[in-house]
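Problem 12. The chain below contains 281 residues. Write out its predicted structure in token notation.
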Amino acid sequence: MAKLIDGKLISAQIKDEVKAEVSKLKESGVTVSLAVIQVGADPASSVYVRNKKKACEYCGIESLSYELPEETTEEELLDLIRELNKRADCNGILVQLPLPKHINEERILDEISPLKDVDGFHPVNVGCLSIGKPGFVSCTPAGVIELIKRSGYEIAGKECVVIGRSNIVGKPMAMLLLKENGTVTVTHSKTADLKAVTKRADILVVAIGKPKMIDASYVKDGAVVIDVGIHRDADNKLCGDVDFESVEPVAEAITPVPGGVGPMTIAMLMKNCLTSVELQK
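Solution.
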């Protein structure tokens, strides 16, 4: 029986730590604030935005909310970001994705000041991560590192395999594992004999985007398995990229879906809001 890595518990610990730090800053006259911009009323985006606002409220972070109509133009959105970049009362800027099709996401994300890019998507922050300079780290991979370390698993010297090479999870995940002195292999849809590679992993991070694709035949006995995926199965139940029932008996530890990586993303966003105050000094 694998140990369940409890993302709800660990994310709550991180939010409590952030809350304590935010409270200390308030005592010294510093307010932490996050601007959240949503364009249109995509139902999934609305849920995410609501959860982010709740987390801000819990941690004592001021939430500046911008709910813009679907027909907002790219220029109007760019103007808002430029204004928020200049404002001293705004520490972090988050644009909820996806954006409507008439808006170029890349252009919007590149306009956010690297010092306020709490999502960690700006090319400057990606570059800082790759050369080990201080900056914002994409929230989901940063959350995975916290899950592994706070559950008592050593990364240094371990064989780490990442399945997936996206800019948001796979690539930053590999760089963070390297930073922790893991020996890292990145695999993807073109990897020859994927199972042979993944079965070497002491730590397996799965972000392939296919429901229940990774079963026990991909996993080494005693591996730590982190499932970044989230989907709905044929019965409309939430599931991940890992076939939990198949993998759980062979793994030493595993994240459930839901309740594993998911809650960590927002906790790390709160932590990045705190980091923004330091970076902006």
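Discussion. The longest helix spans residues 7-27. Students who got a different answer should revisit the alignment rule from Section 12.3.
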